[in-house]
Amino acid sequence: MSSVASLHNVIKRYVRGKQTIEVLHQLDLEVPSGQFLALMGPSGSGKTTLLNLIGGLDRPTAGEVIVAGERIDQLSSGQLAKWRARHVGFVFQFYNLMPMLSAERNIELPLLLTSLSSAQRKRNVAAALELVGLTTHAKHKPSELSGGQQQRVAIARALIADPTLLVCDEPTGDLDRASASDILGLIQTLNRQQGKAVIMVTHDQKAADYASRILHVDKGQLVEAADRSAATAA
Amino acid sequence: MKFFRLVWAGLWRKKVRTIFTLLSIVIAFVLFGTLQGIDTAFKQLVDQGRLNVLVTQNPAGLPLPLADLSQIEAVHGVTGVTYRSLFIGDYQSLRNIVIVLPIDTAHYIALNRNIFSVSPTQLAAFQHDRTGALITESLAQRLHWKVGDHVPVHALNAQKKDGGSDWTFDIVGTFDLPNNPSREQSLLLMNYDYFDTARAADTGTVLSYQVNIADASQAAAISNTIDNLFANSAHRTLTQTEKASAQGQLAQIGDLDFFVEAIVGAAFATLLLLTGSTLMQAFRERIHEFAVMKTLGFTDGGIATLVVSEAILLSVGAAVIGLLLAHALLPAVGALAQGQIPGLHLPWIVFGAGIAGGVLLALASVLPAAWRARRLSIIDALAVH
């Protein structure tokens, strides 16, 4: 099976004042296409840093990062932005929707960077809204939606440009249990039915249980928890 | 165009702040448009001045003896001389100001026939009726005067021998000054002889002479010759071309260009600081949003362009509103001035300069914010917020 993400000998260091902190130490990772990978670990372990490297938001200090067939650690800032628009959908803990735009306009944002016509964009947005079950809330502003609904809008926005990879950073961290279960079920369905590769950072073991593979990040190194290819969500 | 909705939504993210910023820019551009309109009107008046027509007057604006006429006529190169006086009056109230020009009925219109448009019949009536008056069509409309009316004008600076200040006239016709801004002024031409015999003071004097010359290139030499004639008299003269004379009169008000530039400059400098700090504050509030947009694939340049576009839309939009208001306001200013500032309008070049000013204002005030938006680190911005 081909890999959606391959990291080889990745080192990431941050400089804080006079101090240099190495967050990731010669890390290797292969994520097969279509896999739902959960990254777990304590705060400061480097899991969000790893997610940022895979999502093309940050660059490694050393090593190779190949995602969606592209050596992204060598791309310029502009190339990386275009690559993200084409290959990665982001879902954040706090939804990160534009407060002044309606749900449908938020979802449409990534499509503004494509050459799709207005009518095509409208059709795609309608389909995405239907997929996340928010057709009736298309005109609502984020402040008029519940947390769960806002996260559904964020998922629709992440999916609208048909990315290769869905990157989720604590997607249920700000939701109650019922809404969290709802969102995780939706992500799992997208992974299983549409074959989207998902890499999700979470503190929550119940959230991680939805993934087909769990990795623990500990002191900048990866530890395989279990192969859960056949597992089903609790 | 597909980004317009995004720019528009960003602009109205904080409605109250946007409205107040918009209003402050609108006011600055109303000021700019109105002052530039007034400045342009005065410049147009000066531009009407002819180079082959000289104006002889006293350097201090005092009256000159009518007896000087024959000496001026005799100067080599002079083709014709006429004269006029002036007083300001009102009709019924000070709201209805009338500029009265006692003229040499025999020659004044003839020497200015390329400026004046008046019917021969009415001109003849004017020349034969001692109390006859010709008025501008704008004055006739403003005060609802018509031919045949017998009207009193209360002089503000021309008392009569009988102690009164009311001058009565018989309206015998109207005249026009085609393509000349003065056509909007409330002008009344009267017979100089009537004025001179009835006035209490300065009898036998005129305010100025109009000297027509054959060759405009000889204007300086002829002016010197005329002024030398009276250099040792009690009534010294200053002779200039009509254009220079108009410029001199304008200069008596003050350096209008300087006033306009100083006022507009001060307004825009204040506006630049205000708009700049407002846009920077708006940027700080939206750091997180810009970081998210960069995450979605918007490039550094794309985000900076959005920030600049919002500022340009705000500033140019406000400039257009302000200039249109100034355009609508100028006729009202003209009406308030009762036509004394003729030709008040907003020229297209001022409108264009205003729009360019709006773009410059936007660029100058938004550049720091746009630069920071461009350099914004996604990781840092998302981590902080």
Give structural notes.
The complex is a heterodimer of chains A (234) and B (385). Chain A is built from seven helices and ten strands. With 234 residues, chain A is of the alpha/beta class. Chain A has a single domain, classed as P-loop containing nucleotide triphosphate hydrolases (Rossmann fold, 3-Layer(aba) Sandwich), CATH 3.40.50.300. Chain A has a six-stranded mixed sheet with strand order 6-7-8-3-9-10, sandwiched between helices. Chain A has a four-stranded antiparallel sheet with strand order 2-1-4-5, with helices on one face. The longest helix of chain A is centred in the last third of the chain and has 18 residues. Chain B is 54% helix and 18% strand. Chain B has 14 helices and twelve strands. In chain B, a hairpin with a 1-residue loop joins strand 4 and strand 5. The mean pLDDT of chain B is 90. At the A-B interface, helix 2 of A face helix 1, helix 11, helix 12 and helix 14 of B.
Mean pLDDT score of chain B: 90
Oligomer: heterodimer
Distance between the termini of chain B: 30 Å
Q: What portion of residues of chain A is helical? A: 25-40%
Number of helices of chain B: 14
Shape of chain A: globular
Beta content of chain A comes to: 25-35%
CATH-assigned homologous superfamily of chain A: P-loop containing nucleotide triphosphate hydrolases
Give the CATH class of chain A: Alpha Beta
Main sheet overview of chain A? 6 strands, mixed
The strands making up the biggest β-sheet of chain B line up spatially as 4-5-9-6-8-7
Our Rg estimate of chain B from Cα atoms comes to: 29 Å
Q: Pairing-aware structural class of the strands and helices of chain A? A: alpha/beta
Q: On the 0-100 scale, what is the average pLDDT of chain A?
A: 90
The count of domains of chain B is 2
Distance between the termini of chain A: 27 Å
Structural class of chain B: alpha+beta
Number of strand elements of chain B: 12
Morphology of chain B: elongated
Please report the two chains with the greatest interface, counting residues with C-beta closer than 8 angstroms to the partner's C-beta: A-B, 27 and 24 residues
